[in-house]
Design a protein that fits this description.
The protein is α+β, with helices and mostly antiparallel strands and about 600 residues long. Helices cover about 30% and strands about 20% of the residues. The strands form eight sheets. A five-stranded antiparallel beta sheet has the order 12-11-23-22-21, sandwiched between helices. The chain has a four-stranded mixed beta sheet with strand order 2-10-19-20, with no helix packed on it. The chain has a three-stranded antiparallel beta sheet with strand order 1-8-9. β16 and β17 (about 400-405) form a beta hairpin. The longest helix has 29 residues, at about 1-30. The termini are far apart. Residues about 40-50 have low confidence and may be disordered.
Length: about 600
């Protein structure tokens, strides 16, 4: 009997020992980098337990402006102190004198520390070059003057650039074949997301000090500096953003009190983004809250565009000989033929109708175009790059259909085939209402296309990917957009119409007659289906280009979801033109 019990007990012990050995094998050899369902990296955690470290640079690639300055971070010269100093006799008096504080303040900061830190609260104390040299010349273990990388506070073009965060699940899903730390930052939106694979770090740059279980020195008091060995990686993404103009445009948008909207500024020659501002700003505390996040880039989001769409109707009318200057339209009427109780423009021809933005003219023309071909409005919207996406897209390396603007939405004219044949829907579409949608980026590209005589190109916001040392890995060359385009003759006639919006004494852009650059453009006021306290909300636009005779810039300003008597887009557009002129002519300021 006892033998049987001994066998059972022995079997249980052997089984337990076997399970324990199996678990040890799993911990020590098999699942060292992905333990349990939480994907715990045991190697990283073991290193953390026996070391204190200060990360100087997380190793992620930079997003830089057109001149090479970082848009996402800044390097700050700071004093790094390690907590083991509290148990050492070190020359704190000299260090305190160098940085201009009392010895007691320095000692108190070290005594309170449980991990390495940069001296100074709430912001780290910024050192001068001379202070850095003096401190490092002292060669005190655990005292270092270094340049530490910090995220730029209040960063520019924040929706364009996007945000990063730690997300081990997303990281593993996105890069199943890469051996990456679970703490690796991953791009969650904007350019950080679009270029994430290029920006991934090779490793961190950090100061490391090994400790025992009590936090005491394990290998003496030497602190090691660890950094990735590859001099070329991570790479940086060079954007086309003009840092000064971006800063100025954001200030102007906020000065005009725009809460929902912004602007897009393109360089017409290169068809690239110089500045892009989206409001509301990102709520950094809760960036993915649908109601308050502000993470969506409104300049890449389709909006009801109103009378700006009359530019498309005008192009189709010109090509189909519906622009007879002797023909008169009754601009005292609405598109349904009823008297217009707000606008009384009288009888106007095609050009003047465009200048004052007469709805009846363009509702009538849209119906006549429908009778010729129900697809004409959609075709001309495509010719002017309003539908589809306009951001740079191509295959690079193994990435098919790589998009610089991953979150860009496509525009549209109609929802279905039936709407194209309905006079009421067509008339509403002719004045940019009903289902007509476009992004501010696409509208800016339409203005650039017209200014270039109908040449239709994709919009770039990144010009190159550069190695860490500044040499080029990949250039993003200019690219034509696929599809039909308007003729140079049609473009020239549209240019005159857009200029007439400003020069006409009753034109909707007459406010811009005195600007330092001659402007051509089109206004838009779109009714939305949103109301506050019974009052309808509108989208306000002005889209144009300048200088008129030698186009350099395309600019769109937009204020979304405001009352009809609210504006801000005209003064914003005017202020932006003046700011750009001053940038181009510094000697005249």
């Amino acid at each position: 009997m006892w033998r049987k019990r001994a066998v059972i007990i022995g079997g249980i012990f052997i089984t337990m020992i076997g399970l324990l050995i199996g678990r040890l094998i799993e911990v020590q050899l098999i699942s060292t980098e992905s333990f349990t369902s939480h994907d715990v990296n045991l190697l990283e955690e073991s290193v953390k337990q026996r070391s204190q470290e200060m990360v100087i640079d997380n190793g992620r690639g930079e997003i830089i402006d057109r001149s090479g300055e970082p848009l996402t971070s800044k390097n700050v010269p700071v004093l790094i102190l390690f907590p083991f100093l509290k148990n050492m006799d070190w020359d704190r008096t000299k260090v305190a004198n160098i940085i201009g504080i009392t010895e007691n303040k320095l000692s108190a900061a070290v005594n309170q520390a449980k991990e390495p830190f940069a001296y100074g609260k709430p912001q780290p104390l910024r050192l001068t070059d001379a202070q850095m040299k003096e401190i490092n010349d002292l060669k005190i273990p655990g005292v270092f003057a270094v340049e530490k990388k910090y995220n730029a506070s209040g960063s520019l073009a924040e929706q364009l650039i996007g945000i990063t965060g730690e997300n081990a699940t997303l990281l593993k899903k996105r890069y199943p074949d890469k051996q990456l730390s679970s703490q690796t930052l991953v791009g969650l939106s904007g350019l950080e997301k679009s270029f994430d694979e290029f920006l991934l770090p090779e490793g961190e740059s950090k100061l490391v000090y090994h400790v025992d279980a009590k936090g005491g020195p394990l290998f003496g008091i030497n602190v090691k500096y660890v950094e990735p060995a590859n001099p070329f990686y991570p790479v940086n993404v060079k954007t086309t953003i003009n840092h000064h103009l971006q800063q100025s445009m954001e200030k102007l948008v906020d000065e005009q009190g725009i809460k929902n909207g912004g602007l897009v500024l393109l360089d017409i020659k290169t068809n690239s983004v110089l500045a892009i501002v989206s409001r509301p700003s990102i709520n950094q505390k809760d960036p993915f809250n649908e109601k308050t996040s502000g993470i969506k880039n409104m300049m890449l989001t389709q909006q009801i565009m109103g009378s700006v769409f009359k530019t498309v109707v005008a192009a189709a009318a010109i090509d189909h000989q519906l622009d007879d200057s002797s023909r008169m339209f009754d601009c005292n009427k609405k598109i349904n033929g009823e008297p217009d109780l707000v606008y009384h423009h009288g009888m106007l021809n095609f050009s003047d109708s465009f200048g004052v933005s007469c709805n009846n003219t363009f509702g009538t023309l849209a119906k006549e175009l429908k009778d010729i071909n129900p697809d004409l409005l959609s075709q001309y919207a495509e010719k002017l790059s309003l539908t589809g996406t306009v951001g740079w897209e191509d295959t690079i390396y193994h990435l098919d259909h790589f998009q610089q603007f991953q979150d860009e939405e496509a525009g549209r004219v109609f929802l279905n085939e039936e709407e194209k044949k309905d006079d009421n829907y067509v008339a509403l579409s002719g004045i940019g209402q009903h289902e007509v949608r476009a992004t501010p980026l696409a509208v800016a590209n339409m203005m650039s296309t017209i200014a270039k005589g109908g040449k239709k190109e994709s919009v770039r916001v990144a010009s190159a990917i550069q190695y860490k040392n500044g040499s080029t890995l990949l250039d993003f060359d200019k690219e034509a957009l696929d599809g039909d385009r308007i003729s140079p003759v049609t473009a020239m006639k549209l240019q005159k119409l857009l200029r007439g919006v400003v020069t006409n004494q009753n034109g909707t852009g007459r406010w811009f007659q005195e600007l330092p650059y001659e402007v051509a453009g089109k206004s838009g006021t779109a009714e939305t289906d949103h109301y506050i306290k019974g009052k309808q909300l509108h989208n306000k636009w002005f889209a144009g280009y300048f200088p008129y005779k030698n186009p350099k810039y395309a600019l769109v300003t937009v204020n979304l979801g405001v009352y009809e008597d609210e504006g801000a887009v005209n003064p914003l557009f005017a202020s932006a033109v003046k700011e750009i002129y001053d940038e181009d002519h510094p000697s005249k300021q």
